[in-house]
Amino acid sequence: MFYKIIIYFLLFIFFFSCSPGKKENNKTVFRYNESAGITSLDPVFAKDQANIWLTNQIFNGLVQFDDNLKIIPCIAKSWKISDDGLTYTFYLRNDVFFHDNKSFKNGKVRKVVASDFVFSFKRIIDNKITSPGAWVFNNVDKENNPFTAINDSVFQIKLKQLFPPFLGLLTMQYCSVVPKEAVEFYGNDFRSNPVGTGPFMFKMWEEGEKLVLLKNPNYFEFDGNQRLPYLDAISVTFIIDKQISFLEFIKGNLDFISGIESSYKDELLTKTGELNPKYKDKFYVLSQPYLNTEYLAFLFSGDESNPLQNKAIRQAINYGFDRNKMITYLRNNIGTPGLYGFVPLGMPYFDTKKINGYDYNPEKSKQLLREAGFPNGEGLSEIALSTNNSYLELCKYIQSQLSEVGIKIKIDVNPPATHRNMVANSKLLFFRGSWIADYADAENYLSLFYSKNFSPAGPNTTHFSDKIFDELFEKAQKEINDSLRNKYYEEMDNIVMQEAAVVVLYYDQVLRFVQNNISGLNCNPMNLLGLKRVKKTNN
Prior knowledge:
Elements: H1 2-17, E1 29-33, H2 49-58, E2 63-65, E3 71-73, E4 76-81, E5 87-92, H3 114-124, E6 147-151, E7 154-158, H4 166-169, H5 180-186, E8 200-206, E9 210-215, E10 222-223, E11 226-227, E12 233-237, H6 242-250, E13 256-258, H7 265-268, E14 283-298, H8 311-319, H9 323-330, E15 336-337, H10 362-371, E16 383-387, H11 392-403, E17 409-413, H12 416-424, E18 430-436, H13 443-446, H14 467-477, H15 482-498, E19 502-515, E20 518-519, E21 535-536
Helix pairs in contact: 8-10, 14-15
């Protein structure tokens, strides 16, 4: 206990010396809170946003995307894709080094070479590791050495079948390069002793309390003549209560917060989604479309007596509530009403507005009920909608509006983990869901309706099956031409809407509240946190 007190005292001294009020060293420390906590700093386990945000500061991959989701070089300075789309050859920079670490000879930095990517990628698909990112390499030719170091600066990947979005998969944090020496030296403890190439180096992690990253003085990326990053350190706290972390932000102890909670949305935002004027001198808002679709879904397998097996009933639900009013009054205009398809606004090269979705039309809803044999909802049994507590207010709104057209909804609330498990195992007939893009291609969303992707092994939790949809999906998988592939995607999304496989509620929005002394913090449709270009002015 005595040693723990000493450690906390030293940390207090370090952070106090880095605070804005201390002019003698003028260190810049970017502070944010991660209420969800993190489970690992090893990129092969970078499954959720909390882990992804931190591993993105410590590690790099072959490629990265910019704020417009354009794929740009990272450790690979260039690449070439063979005419058949099966071989990807990457040409590596020769000025990228791993962070200083005692696992290396003499504890000094070591240059990244192609064999490091061979090791890192083989590790992802190693069954002993059980990485949740192993699916990224489902299309590689695992039987014939899919990863090859041609020499120290040339790395090659071979696919067994064409997959046009593959390059985008390599931007994911799973695909970061790690050094074999450190992985072997730390073993399972690599999760809490990460060694990467990124703009920030690991310093300490007191689980559930605080995590500290320090500036990497050898980072390879520049902004003009200035070596990145600008910040001296990153400090992350793990306050679970979001109301408390919000108050810490208001007091200036956190540099930004992400997203909006119902407990303080009316304090920060006006009803039209603008920043409360009383805070304009303290902080500002960053916002843009987020590749996240919020929806209700139907299970297509099960008892035929279930009224939701009737397309007219599913369409009646889609027409039966006002999405515009829902966004205005329940979300302070944060997000876009789900009037189009399942693929969200902001997806590169995809025109969402070419998809015929559903708008509020109570008379059309009533007409569909009559055609289904349930005039004014008479004889239609109560329908159970399953959700978790975070979306209860929204589901109650839908329940109220649907009751006006004759559709009676019962809301079942389960803990988030229970809800996810029941969805994955096809235990729910009507349920709330959300899908955040893993990579910036419409295929990632439409794969949820491909019949060979039935859950629990695949993402098709609705068990939707349509022969024409499947044929289009398989055509798109083989099409290199982006324009043609997007035409297939549009047809597929229209089929999902025509069949009313889901009820699209809204397309989400990235929302960041940032202190006025912070500059260079941008946002992107993947809601990835990048801090290498961020500057902080100490007052």
